[in-house]
């Protein structure tokens, strides 16, 4: 007799597909009004395998919802000035609604300078300080794709958040910090009491055991164990890591920051890796691009 799992999955693929069906309708409307489809460009510097995979997935997702997409591949050796010049050209391109510069960039390029150079109205990754400021103030703008995807995932599955204690592990500018801001907003999903943990946090397991909602975005494979999670918690695994696995055709398998087999049985809801946050990040990028056409 098979035993049914006690937890429910926050299925980013299923939620993303539902949202993408609406985005495809929105793309058709844009096309009929303006005579051209929403257009997203992705800039990839160098030939890092993982970055290329991410960018190609974004380009493919654009095509699937009827957007136009352009992949701009630049050499690893491009100078910072040349990349900034390229960004300025994209800012001015009237045929383009939004663009992203895939991170990380090579060491000789200052990623902050590049982010600052992107016109806020085309910054569909939501990394520009103007968009971050708008998020903090609750003003319209582009939300960073990964945290906004997590919010949409929680909304899709009607996960209760008001009054809950949410612990976010990781304070990066693109995931942890904006996630903590969104979960503490006076909105749904939100209205949580938020604790933002990082590498200097003392006794992290004691803290995570207090979490009703635990969002793991620290970038350490299978770091969060069963002993760190309380019964009935909602766990969102943001981390993504390729682990060598000779038994797979690809030669690797994907794991998150959470030890799924130990943690899932304690959860009420869990966003797994793969199939949780990843597809939602791309969906948010598409949502932002559609928004860029209509504001
Ligand atoms: P990051 O910039 O490396 O930031 C990691 C954060 O985790 C830092 O704030 C760091 O603290 C904290 N940290 C590291 N070790 C810790 C520990 N032992 N205990 C507590 N905190 C610790 O990473 P990121 O860009 O936010 O990405 C995090 C993970 O999410 C990565 O695996 C990345 O690949 C993944 N990711 C996935 C998606 C997706 O779409 N699925 C999107 C973006 C990122 P300090 O600040 O003190 O150093």
Can you describe this structure in just a few lines?
The chain has helices at 12-34, 49-64, 80-92, 111-117, 129-137, 145-156, 176-184, 204-208, 260-263, 277-294, and strands spanning 8-9, 39-45, 68-74, 98-101, 165-169, 193-197, 213-216, 233-237, 241-244, 252-255, 267-271. With 295 residues, the protein is of the alpha/beta class.
Structure notes:
The protein has 295 residues and is of the alpha/beta class. It folds into 2 domains: 34-120, Leucine Dehydrogenase, chain A, domain 1 (Rossmann fold); 145-278, Rossmann fold (3-Layer(aba) Sandwich). The protein contains 10 helices and 11 strands. The chain has helices spanning 12-34, 49-64, 80-92, 111-117, 129-137, 145-156, 176-184, 204-208, 260-263, 277-294; strands spanning 8-9, 39-45, 68-74, 98-101, 165-169, 193-197, 213-216, 233-237, 241-244, 252-255, 267-271. The strands form 3 sheets. The chain has a 6-stranded parallel β-sheet with strand order 1-11-8-7-5-6. α2 crosses α10 (277-294) and α6 crosses α10 (277-294). The longest helix is centred in the N-terminal third of the chain and has 23 residues, at 12-34. The protein is globular. The model has no long low-confidence stretch (mean pLDDT 96).
Q: What structural class do you assign from the helix and strand content?
A: alpha/beta
What does the largest sheet look like? 6 strands, parallel
Give the radius of gyration: 19 Å
Q: Quote the average pLDDT.
A: 96
Q: Per the principal axes of the C-alpha atoms, what is the gross shape?
A: globular
Low-confidence runs of at least 5 consecutive residues = none
Distance between the termini: 55 Å
Name the strands of the widest sheet in spatial order.
Answer: 1-11-8-7-5-6
Number of helices: 10
User: CATH superfamily of the largest domain, called what?
Assistant: NAD(P)-binding Rossmann-like Domain
Bound molecules: NADP nicotinamide-adenine-dinucleotide phosphate
Strand tally is 11
User: So what's the CATH class of the largest domain?
Assistant: Alpha Beta
What percent strand?
15-25%
Helix proportion range: 25-40%
Could you say how many structural domains there are in total? Answer: 2
CATH second-level architecture of the largest domain: 3-Layer(aba) Sandwich
Order of helices and strands: EHEHEHEHHHEHEHEEEEHEH
Query: Could you name the CATH topology of the largest domain?
Result: Rossmann fold
């Amino acid at each position: 007799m098979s035993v049914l799992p006690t937890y429910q999955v926050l299925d980013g693929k299923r939620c993303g597909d539902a949202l993408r069906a609406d985005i495809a309708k929105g793309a058709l409307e844009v096309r009929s009004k303006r005579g051209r489809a929403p257009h997203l460009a992705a800039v990839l510097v160098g030939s890092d395998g993982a970055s290329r995979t991410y960018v190609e997935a974004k380009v493919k997702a654009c095509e699937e919802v009827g957007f136009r997409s352009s992949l701009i591949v630049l050499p690893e050796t491009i100078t910072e000035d040349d990349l900034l010049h390229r960004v300025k050209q994209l800012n001015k391109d009237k045929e383009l609604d939004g663009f992203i510069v895939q991170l990380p960039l090579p060491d000789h390029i200052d990623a902050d300078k590049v982010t600052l150079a992107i016109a806020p109205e085309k910054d569909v990754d939501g990394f520009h300080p103007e968009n971050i400021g708008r998020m903090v103030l609750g003003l319209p703008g582009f939300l960073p794709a990964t945290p906004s995807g997590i919010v949409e995932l929680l909304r899709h599955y009607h996960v209760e958040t008001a009054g809950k204690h949410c612990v976010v592990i990781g304070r990066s500018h693109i995931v942890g910090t904006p996630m903590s801001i969104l979960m503490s907003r006076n909105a749904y999903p939100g209205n949580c009491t938020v604790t933002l943990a990082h590498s200097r946090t003392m006794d992290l397991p004691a803290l995570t055991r207090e979490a009703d909602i635990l969002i793991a975005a620290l970038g350490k494979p299978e770091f969060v164990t069963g002993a760190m999670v309380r019964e009935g918690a909602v766990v969102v695994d943001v981390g993504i890591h390729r682990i060598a696995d000779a038994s797979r055709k690809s030669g690797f398998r994907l794991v998150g920051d959470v030890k799924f087999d130990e943690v899932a049985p304690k959860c009420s809801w869990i966003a797994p890796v793969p199939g949780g946050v990843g597809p939602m990040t791309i969906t948010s990028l598409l949502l932002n691009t559609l928004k860029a056409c209509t504001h």
